[in-house]
Amino acid sequence: MNEILVAYYSRSGKTKAVAVHLARMLGADLEEITEAAHRSGAKGWLLAGRDTMFDRPATLTSSHDLSGRKVIVLGMPVWAFAPPPAIRAFIRQHDLAGKSVIAFATMDGSGGERTLESLAKMLPGGLACRLVLKKPRGDDPVLLAQLQEFAERIRSAKTA
């Protein structure tokens, strides 16, 4: 088991693509956070926003063993300027004290910094570092450069 885990939640696949690149760059383990709710299509998008705004709890269908992990990287989309319910459920279900928690948020619009600030307040030690990515696209050289720089910051946070 690797000391670094990249755990992500993705509705559309954009966050997943970023998480895959980042995990590969870090040589980290990669796990998807999944939930019981189906959030595909326009209806899923609307319900996702509603559940986020009203802090409705998510029921996770994935399980994650964080023992032995020193660094947890959480990847998420921005929903209604807040972390999605699945990410909040992950945080509530795991003891993250003593772990370095790092996060990245993907978005098409705005609210990334606000989302990660909200997330930091939910964590016992806040966030060690963070990254907001607007409209990340696959193998875009600019995205890959941003992720490489972020991976270096994560390595630095791990040794701090």
Q: What does the secondary structure layout of this molecule look like, with pairings?
A:
Elements lengths: L3 E5 L5 H13 L2 E4 L8 H13 L17 E7 L7 H9 L6 E8 L4 H11 L6 E6 L6 H19 L1
Parallel strand pairs: 1-2, 1-3, 3-4, 4-5
Helix pairs in contact: 1-5
- Largest β sheet strand count, sense and barrel closure: 5 strands, parallel
Strand order of the largest sheet: 2-1-3-4-5
Low-confidence stretches: none
By CATH, the superfamily comes out as Flavodoxin domain
Please state roughly what percent of the residues sit in beta strands, choosing from under 5%, 5-15%, 15-25%, 25-35%, 35-45% or over 45%: 15-25%
Structural domains: how many: 1
Q: What percentage of residues falls in helices of 4 or more residues?
A: 40-55%
What form results from the Cα inertia axes? Answer: globular
With helices defined by DSSP (H or I, 4 residues minimum), what is the helix count? 5
Helix- and strand-based class? alpha/beta
CATH class: Alpha Beta
Number of strands: 5
* CA-based gyration radius: 14 Å
The CATH architecture would be: 3-Layer(aba) Sandwich
What is the CA–CA distance across the termini? Answer: 21 Å
**Helix-strand pattern, N to C?**
EHEHEHEHEH
Could you name the CATH topology? Answer: Rossmann fold
- Quote the average pLDDT: 90
